[in-house]
Amino acid sequence: MGDVTFFAWRTLMWLLVRLPRRGTLLPVMYQVGVLSLPVVALTGMFIGMVLAVQTFYEFHRLQMETRLGAVINMSLARELGPVLAATMLAGRVGSAMAAELAPCASLSRLMPCPAWVPTRFTIWSSRGSSPLSC
Q1: I need a labelling partner for 14 at 20 to 30 A (CA). Which of 35, 67, 75, 119 fits?
Q2: Is 10 part of a structural domain of the chain?
Q3: What is the pLDDT of residues 6-46, one digit of tens each?
């Protein structure tokens, strides 16, 4: 078994044994979900505009300009939307978590603590709500 499998297994077991407090879970959900909406919407808008510019020439040659909006809507909603949203969400959330962990690592407060459990810290670290607050 690899480290990622072991990490995922420990995470699942920890979630089943001890559910997170409401004061910890709701801010993390807000940070991951609501605060990511502007990034996803802005990137989706620009991807849609580029797709419209690129497809208009071909649709003009086929005299199907009126179908351009429907095709872009279907392609973004069905095909590109979920992939782009997941990529942007992972980038935004990953960078936010790295920005929270960076001051801790630079002060070397993570490594010397004997009771530090990386599963709990990386999942529930949100502005000092983790078991080990920096």
Answers
A1: 35
A2: no
A3: 888 888 888 788 776 777 778 877 877 888 888 888 888 88
